[in-house]
Specification:
The protein contains 13 helices and 24 strands. It is of the alpha+beta class.
Length: about 425
């Protein structure tokens, strides 16, 4: 039951939004939490409300009718469309960057320009127009190289090229089959080598609060094999992360926020920096204008009961200089539908959820789920995340995998190596 009279609306339907809603609910004031559109797998602690109109102005009008005290926007699409701007115009408090600031994710070339302006280390790149110019750029950089779509592509706009065969496969998908039909601009980056790190901060535009470092796992299969996905799991913290790394990452964020303010696009909300630890130091692979998924599932719990107060402080432009975020080891394992990521199979019933929810030391965050004839069935690619928590990464892994093994899904798939290297396995 709500206790403070506060009403918080979380926009989105996935496991990230479930994690944010669950974190907000932990606030001592016990606010009422609404999730729009949410999904039927989310427990009854949240009020799930209908989908928003796509038009930001109409969506803001509809949200206003709910009288929320704060709106937290999870996914990138409504941010890029300008939902935050429309809400602010109506005087509704919102956590999330403006559409102009969200271009740091919506346009990778815009992000490259801000990095160049701020002197932030990143990979060399060449803008390309067609298959021939892609081949020329790859020839110039050599392998590995990376072909990227400029705009939002739901995690499918990046092709890592290790060989001529990889190159031809990417060109087939992009320029012949037009798998990314909404994308018109592409560029090629020189490949970087080293472990990847997700570094995510909450910022009011000037000050920022870093969450513990994390790593997500993009490939569908064990050993980082197979096609890229939206993310098959995450782990935090990382054993190889040093105080110098933390200092350097914070410097990169500080420079980025400076560049955004200087450009007239101050950034407020969650800023995600995808980093690579190269032999020359940290370099930025990409920026996202929101919390990562599945990183949110392992990092949001780090705020404990203070999440809502931190979000409110960021919205008010008064983020505290210090706040305690726990570095408790957590491992998230994603259960995906059969056929994911190419053609996920929908309508398959989930079994064993009640028993899985009863397990100690784990949390379930629901995503691609709908209700059919009184049963929860699949309705997307990534179905849910199981997060294990323990004194060590190994313990967190064991809890996550023990719980996910209780869930039945015909054709379902999950990686068995999430966090293995951090656990010394």
């Amino acid at each position: 039951m709500a206790g403070s009279g506060k009403r918080i609306l979380v926009v989105g339907s996935g496991a990230r939004e479930h994690a944010l809603a669950d974190g907000i609910r932990q606030d001592p004031s016990r606010p009422e939490v609404l999730v729009c559109p949410g999904n039927p797998g989310m427990p009854g602690d949240f009020r799930v409300v209908p989908s928003l109109p796509e038009d930001p102005g109409e969506a803001a009008k509809w949200i206003g009718s709910l009288s929320p005290d704060l709106v937290v926007i999870g996914p990138e699409k409504p941010l890029a469309a300008g939902l935050s701007d429309a809400l602010r115009e109506k005087g509704i408090a919102v956590l999330g960057p403006s559409a102009s600031a969200a271009r740091i994710e919506a346009s990778k070339l815009f992000a490259k320009e801000r990095m160049r302006e701020a002197g932030i280390p990143t990979a060399d790149f060449q803008v390309t127009e067609d298959a021939g110019s892609v081949r020329d750029a790859v020839r110039s950089f050599g392998y590995p190289a990376v072909l990227k779509a400029d705009g939002l592509a739901q995690g499918k706009g990046v092709f890592v090229l290790h060989s001529p065969e990889d190159l031809e496969e990417a060109l087939e998908k992009v320029f012949r089959r037009h798998d990314l039909e909404s994308q018109t601009k592409f560029f090629v980056e020189k490949g970087l080598s080293g472990p990847e790190v997700s570094f995510i901060v909450l910022t009011d535009g000037t000050r920022f609060l870093p969450f513990p470092e994390a790593r997500d796992y993009k490939r569908i299969g064990d050993g980082n094999r197979g096609p890229n996905t939206g993310g098959m799991g995450a782990v935090t913290p990382l054993s190889g992360w040093t105080p110098k790394d933390q200092e350097d990452a914070c410097h990169l964020i500080d420079r980025t926020l400076w560049a955004m303010r200087r450009h007239g696009t101050p950034f407020q909300g969650f800023l995600y920096a995808g980093l690579m630890k190269t032999p020359e130091g940290l370099k930025v692979l990409e920026f996202n204008a929101r919390f990562g998924d599945p990183e949110a599932q392992v990092l949001v719990p780090a705020a404990g009961e203070s999440l809502l107060s931190l979000l409110e402080s960021a919205v008010g432009g008064a983020l505290p200089a210090e706040a305690h975020l726990s570095r408790t080891p957590r491992v998230a394992v994603v259960l995906a539908a059969g056929g994911y990521p190419e053609k996920p199979v929908s309508g398959i019933a989930l079994q064993g959820l009640d028993k899985a929810r009863e397990q100690d030391g784990t949390r379930l965050y629901m995503a691609g789920i709908k209700e059919k004839n009184g049963q929860l069935v699949t309705s997307g690619g990534r179905i849910l995340s199981v997060v294990g928590e323990g004194k060590t990464i190994r313990e967190a892994r064991e809890k996550a995998y023990r719980t996910i093994s209780l869930i039945g899904l015909e054709g379902g798939q999950f990686r068995t190596d999430i966090g293995a290297e951090e656990a010394g396995e």
